[in-house]
Amino acid sequence: MIVACLSRRRIALCAIFVFAAATCRAQTSPAPREQQVKPSDELLAEGVAALERGDAPTARDLLERALAADPHSAEAHTYLGVLADRAGDLNDAERHFALAARLAPQSARTRNNYGAILLRLNRTGEAAAEFEASLRLDPDQAKALVNLAQIRFDSHTPEGLRAAEDLFRRADALAPDAEIARALTVIALRCNDRERAADCYRAYAKRLASAGGKAPDAAARSELGGALLEAGLLDEAELELKAALGVDASNADAVVRLARVYLARKDIPAAGRTLEAALARKVEAPAIYALLAVAYEKSGHIENAIPAMRLAIQLDPQSEKYRFQYAILLTDANAPAAALIRLNEALQSFPKSVRLWLALGLANLKMSNNGEAAQAFNHAIELDPEFAQGYACLGMTRVAAGQYEAGARLYEQALQRNPKIAVVHYLLADALLRKADADSARIDTHLKQAIQMDATYAPARLALGKLYARAEHLPEAVVEFERVVGLDPNLAEAYYQLGRAYSRLKRTAEAQAALTTFKRLSDAQKEQEQKEQREIIRRLADVLF
User: Which of 127, 172, 436, 471 has its CA 20 to 30 A from that of 94?
Assistant: First the structure.
């Protein structure tokens, strides 16, 4: 017979569980018996029968009598270990499994069983040794391979990850299984191999759909969906998160992650519907209200975003993150004075929050209080000298005062601390463009860096097009300007620059059309400049979420 599983163990990867209920897998088929039936054999058989029908007291009595008749019975110790495990006495279970392994050291199953109970007791080094011994005796054991793979994965080393993948693949070849496909999906995500992760996820989803067994719980599916989202596998993330909500529609984490999938696709209405539907089901969580505020803001309904953010803070008043998000929202909504009031309140509770000091500086910057803004940014840097956004925002105060060289130096300091903030590359290029001795090659490098990190950032493409036009590279300039228009059809300056470039290329009709559109949009130019400023602030703030 196959003894019931000895434990449930999760393999964690940044809160991602490889198995919904991963099992430390015991496999205890009785060893071949001697031809001559002994009294202990009869007692053992009766004890196993009692165990199978759920009569634990009778099973224990018969198995102990069998062990008394034959103190060297590895099978009796194994089944007594199972009984102890079911009763929650792990120490007694470990004692019996250890004795079974000592009495039958050449039994692959017995060694695996002992390793499984050691794993439950967090004695991972000893457990690994038992699984390795079991696999030397019989390499084709899917359960032992999975058990050892769990340990190798939990080592959190590149070598351990590679070993875990090899072990899981060997187990999968022997016994294809949805849990193993899930494990391989997580390993691929950990290795940043999106294509392999997508392939493994498809195998996992297919097996899960056809298995008919117990599916992972909502929390496990939500965690995997979140990991797929972070890897940019939006279709796969959507499937997993919808499945999580199918299991438990009240799972707030799955709701938020699914809405984030839609936001990543720029499908703001779908994100809003997902969050609002959850609230209608009485799934009220601060994270849902906070993300709903983002969806409302992106859809242009700032009047709904502000009360949603207030509700998030009301549900979680100790969240420094929500206080920061609320202040940025108020600043974006042209209410920086209100943001200052809320920030001064929040700083009473979080006086060392670099994010809140940054938001205080941004609110002052919005009000053209450059001196107060610089003080706030400097204080944020004093609290955290490695705070890249603090240097970037301080650079904005210098540029606003016409100190382009000083601003550029601060942007460079920000990039030294975090070179992966696209908007700072753009800000540095913009500051360099304003200097009389502009270094075109250096500007080109930073603009291309910004675009490489975020191909949808229209201001960086516009600046690159202007740089090309200045260097008389007009075809390249036209390409960038056309891309800008595609990204933001209401950006007046893009049409102006495109019209000029067309004109210089003798494309008269296209130039006239572009300039006509520019004239129509030019009245809204001031609003567009404010939008660009809000976008810079939002991008700097988003890095902190």
Answer: 172
Closest by CA to 251, choosing from 263, 262, 240, 267, is 240
Does the pTM surpass 0.85? The reply is no
- Can you say how many angstroms the Cα of residue 166 is from the centroid of all Cα atoms in its chain? 24
What 49-57 contacts at long range (C-beta under 8 Å, 24+ apart), as own/partner pairs, is: 51/79, 51/82, 51/83, 52/1, 56/83, 56/86, 56/87
**How many Å apart are CA 323 and CA 327, to the nearest integer?**
6
**Separation CA 400–CA 483 (nearest Å):** 28
Q: Angle CA(502)–CA(454)–CA(430) in degrees, nearest 5?
A: 60
| 3-class SS of residue 154 | helix
Grouping H, G, I as helix, E, B as strand and the rest as coil, residue 3 is: coil
SS3 267: coil
Distance between CA atoms of residues 65 and 47, nearest Å: 9
Q: How many structural domains are present in the chain? A: 2
Residue 231: count other Cβ atoms within 10 Å of its Cβ.
19
φ, ψ at 130 (rounded to 5°): -70, -40
Mean pLDDT of 186-202: 94
* Average of per-residue pLDDT across 199-213: 85
463 and 405 in a common domain: no
**5-34 average pLDDT score:** 37
pLDDT band at 527 (very low <50, low <70, confident <90, very high): low
DSSP one-letter code for 368: T
Answer whether residue 476 is part of any domain. yes
Torsion (CA) 372, 377, 380, 384 in degrees, nearest 10 = -150
Q: Is 129 exposed, middle or buried (0-12, 13-18, 19+ CB in 10 A)?
A: middle
Of 544 and 76, which is predicted with more confidence? 76
- Angle value at C-alpha 63, between 24 and 43, nearest 5 degrees: 130
Range of the domain at 426: 386-449
Per-residue model confidence as pLDDT tens digits over 312-329: 999 999 999 999 999 999
How far is CA 366 from its chain centroid?
Answer: 32
Instruction: Report how far residue 471's alpha carbon sits from residue 480's, in angstroms, rounded to the nearest whole number.
Output: 14
Q: How many CA atoms lie within 13 A of 488 on its CB side?
A: 25
Mean pLDDT of the chain: 88
Residues 438 and 507 in one domain: no
Measured CA to CA, the distance from residue 287 to residue 311 in angstroms comes to 10
Q: What percent of the chain is predicted at pLDDT more than 70?
A: 88
Residue 511: count other Cβ atoms within 10 Å of its Cβ.
18
Assigned domain for 321 exists? no
In the Cβ-directed half-sphere of 484, how many Cα atoms lie within 13 Å?
26
| φ, ψ at 17 (rounded to 5°) | -100, 125
Average pLDDT over residues 102-111: 93
Give which of 383, 377, 385, 388 is closest to 414, Cα–Cα: 388
The enclosing domain of 512 has a CATH number of 1.25.40.10
